[in-house]
Amino acid sequence: MTATLTPDAKILQIGIIGMGDMGRMYARRLSGAGWMINACDRPENFEKLKQDFASNPLVNILENGYLVSRMSDYIIYSVEAENIESIVAMYGASTKVGAIVGGQTSCKAPEIAAFEKHLPADVQIVSCHSLHGPNVDTRGQPLVLIQHRASDEALDLVRTVLSCFNSQFVYLTASQHDKITADTQAATHAAFLSMGVAWQANNQFPWEVPRYVGGIENVKINISLRIYSNKWHVYAGLAIMNPAAQAQILQYAKSVTELFTLMVEHKTKELRDRVYAAKKAVFGGLPANHELLLSDDLLDKFSLSNVPPQDRTPNSHLSLLAMVDCWCKLGIVPYDHMICSTPLFRIWLGVTEYLFQSPGLLDECINVALENDTFRADDLEFTIAARSWSDIILFGNFNLYRVRFETTQNYFSPRFPDATKLGNEMIKTIFEKTKQRRLH
Ligand SMILES: NC(=O)C1=CN([C@@H]2O[C@H](COP(=O)(O)OP(=O)(O)OC[C@H]3O[C@@H](n4cnc5c(N)ncnc54)[C@H](OP(=O)(O)O)[C@@H]3O)[C@@H](O)[C@H]2O)C=CC1
Ligand SMILES: O=C(O)C(=O)Cc1ccc(O)cc1
């Protein structure tokens, strides 16, 4: 290791390759803590990036990843997962002798494979993953560190640099990371992506529809719009490139289809037995005094709609019934994965818990599912959407994923500013409210 790798020396130079949403957030926060940053995006973005960071003397914008790699002691690749192999193939050989390299991609198997293939043997590998989006307060959020090919000293250095986020470090291997994040993210995203496609297919903006009123509906709308306001490749990458994720998404689509079939066939006993078996598997281990993570009062505050919450229409909540059924079929107890939970996952778990554990609500939902056609057309489109997302992901088709995602993104885009504002508030409030009893 070179002399510059002393943890407390801020002469250490940090490289960031890929100055998109996450790269910029890292550059701002790390330079804010006094670290010197060398950063680049694609060469064609050089001038614009230079202008954007002109007022920050600690961020040195360079033309490309060769220059960043040559000058920096700890380099973070913050690029699209789909392109990690080709980008590391370009710049990896220029990495400064003895430096540490890591990546921010959401799926670690391809990232680590690219590092092993293209980085010189003297380079150490410590990867990371902030388990939240670029606009979330980093404090208290999980930040995974993967000491893959590195000394304890190198891990210490990475920890020292990233400690300014005040996140919660979680130490995992790459394969543990991929397995756990598949459990927390894959089916969660599939559910919200399917809601967006279904609403569009029925040509509706749900906050304008009186039956989409109330706490749980607010969460569905805000989070679905939040996902669609992000970049398509973030979700495509973690779903398509993580083999463990594919099994989850397939099972989610299967659960949606099978439950919907039981609903339209009015198979009361089968539906009830199946839902209650899932409830037992997922929530049966909770202590008797377990307090619900969320309450309707809390969630009623975050509505894009003008309709008062007391006019709530009971919903069949197919997306939530299927989520718990999916966890049950795969033997997943979501509470075991709180160490790798994103804000969206925690909220989604809170909502499922609310539906399954609030007295009377689950029975109301099963009755609506069997006897009431108010949500039938929505549930049909939701089922088709879930199947369609699972096909796209299983075929590994990035182009089709992009087209499908961006079509729905365009449809909802006028409401993104409002939804983002409301979503940030919602995440902040829920985070504060649940701080004392986060389940890890
Ligand atoms: N957004 C999120 O919520 C989170 C994302 N992540 C992961 O972090 C990574 C980055 O995500 P995010 O910042 O959101 O995505 P962005 O698309 O905003 O950022 C990626 C950046 O890398 C640039 N890039 C592409 N090729 C090169 C290259 N050869 N040299 C330098 N830069 C290049 C891209 O340019 P161009 O756009 O021109 O291709 C883009 O600006 C992804 O792997 C994602 O999965 C992790 C946690 C959360
Ligand atoms: O919270 C979520 O699930 C998000 O949508 C943000 C996100 C996206 C990708 C990640 O790798 C981590 C977090």
UniProtKB/TrEMBL annotation:
<protein>
    <submittedName>
        <fullName>Uncharacterized protein</fullName>
    </submittedName>
</protein>
